[in-house]
């Protein structure tokens, strides 16, 4: 059964937006009295019943709601330099949403090939992946900002903080460094890796160097590896 999305349902928005309404009525041919499941993207799943089968604005009433506990026991933020190829970045957003994360932040580094990033399409990809995988948590996707500004404004002193970069001398693998049930901030650099002064700045803000294994990974692969490891540690 299809899963629908209404982020403001708990604030009284008991209707579907136009695209969701069109899919519900025109494609699935649902009618008054039919039921479906809906999420607010904030951890809650709802069972609702259609009260007005308008293809521009489906109205419904709530029959049941529950909070899904998956992703509640830890908090994962991936901070990554956007890739030059947007298709690869969209692929990562889709897969990471399916696996599970809470926040995705983008940083522009000295070696970044892409200096400007619009997040509208990435958010749509995340919504689609959340619905397809029947999840109730939509990751918060932040606008890109410079590495230095992000480090200054958003470093979380309460989080376990890690930076993954290319260095054969790393002894600690991410899977051994994470503690279950914590908040994590994990930095993933661009294809050209972090600049030395960026690594030093991360160290000054409490980030620990970690390895993701012996292979040299593409940016989006490394980010997905980190997402997967954090989820496995918390299962």
TrEMBL record:
One of its GO terms (molecular function) is methyltransferase activity. GO terms for biological process: methylation. Residues 74-230 form the Ribosomal RNA small subunit methyltransferase E methyltransferase domain. It comes from the Bacteria. It catalyses: uridine(1498) in 16S rRNA + S-adenosyl-L-methionine = N(3)-methyluridine(1498) in 16S rRNA + S-adenosyl-L-homocysteine + H(+). Pfam families: Methyltrans_RNA (PF04452), PUA_4 (PF20260). NCBIfam families: PRK11713.6-1 (NF008702), RsmE family RNA methyltransferase (TIGR00046). This is Ribosomal RNA small subunit methyltransferase E.
């Amino acid at each position: 059964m299809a899963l629908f999305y209404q982020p403001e349902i708990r604030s009284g928005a008991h209707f579907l937006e136009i695209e969701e309404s069109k899919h519900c009525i025109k494609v699935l041919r649902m009618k008054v009295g039919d039921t479906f499941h809906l999420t607010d993207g904030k951890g809650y799943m709802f069972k609702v019943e259609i009260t007005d089968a308008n293809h521009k604005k489906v109205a419904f009433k709530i029959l049941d709601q529950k909070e899904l506990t998956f992703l509640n026991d830890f908090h994962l933020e991936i901070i990554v330099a956007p890739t030059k190829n947007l298709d690869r970045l969209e692929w990562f957003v889709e897969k990471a949403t399916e696996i599970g994360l809470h926040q995705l932040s983008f940083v522009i580094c000295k070696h970044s090939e892409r200096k400007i990033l619009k997040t509208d399409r990435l958010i749509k990809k995340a919504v689609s992946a959340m619905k397809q995988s029947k999840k109730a948590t939509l990751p918060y996707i932040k606008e890109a900002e410079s590495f230095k500004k992000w480090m200054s404004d958003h470093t979380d002193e309460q989080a376990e903080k890690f930076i993954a970069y290319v260095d054969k001398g790393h002894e600690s693998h991410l899977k051994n460094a994470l503690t279950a049930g914590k908040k994590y901030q994990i930095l993933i650099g661009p294809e050209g890796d972090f600049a030395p002064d960026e690594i030093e700045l991360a160290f000054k803000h409490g980030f620990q160097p970690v390895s993701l294994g012996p292979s040299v990974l593409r940016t989006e692969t490394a980010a997905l590896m980190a997402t997967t490891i954090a989820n496995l540690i918390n299962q």
